[in-house]
Amino acid sequence: MSLRRVYQKLLKDHFMVVQSAQTGLLMGTGDIIAQTIIEGKRGATYEPKRTAKFTLLGTVFVGPTLSLWYKVLARKIGTEMSTAVTLKKVALDQLVFAPSFLILFLTNLNLINGRSLSEAKEDVSSNYLDIMVANYKLWPAVQLFNFYCVPLNYQVLLAQSVAVVWNTYLSWKTNLK
User: Fold this and answer.
1) Residue ranges per domain, the chain?
2) How far is Cα 74 from Cα 28, in angstroms, rounded to an integer?
3) CA 1 → CA 8, 14, 15, 100, 123, distances in Å?
4) Any idea where this protein resides (predicted)?
């Protein structure tokens, strides 16, 4: 059996588990890239706990949330790959979901890193605008392609594959000292 067929079967039988695991893995990869390539950490300076936290957040929060969001969009807007459906999905994704999801993501990231709720609020307010601007430079184009060309079962995978770059940026940005 080919790897593609195994993946399709796993998606069919365990959709949320597969989406969550692949998102966690890809978010962890983004953190590893941020630490080793962008921040130049090696050996003792590399922070495996940071990678584990980023992976955990991807597995238990980002993966399930994105999977459910894409299913909601498919159910409410449709699954046809037409211009009208795609534009509606991208508009909802970028004008409704992305701004609120980013607040939740940054808050959860702060909390998982042991910061208090007031420290999390302060960090969100200092980083939110920069991250939203960066979001709008990348994600509308990605989501246009994703919603127009990619079947629902593969949309989270495509988004999270592109998100390796995004997660690298988020990891670096949210860990600036």
Assistant:
1) 3-175
2) 28
3) 11, 18, 19, 41, 48
4) Membrane
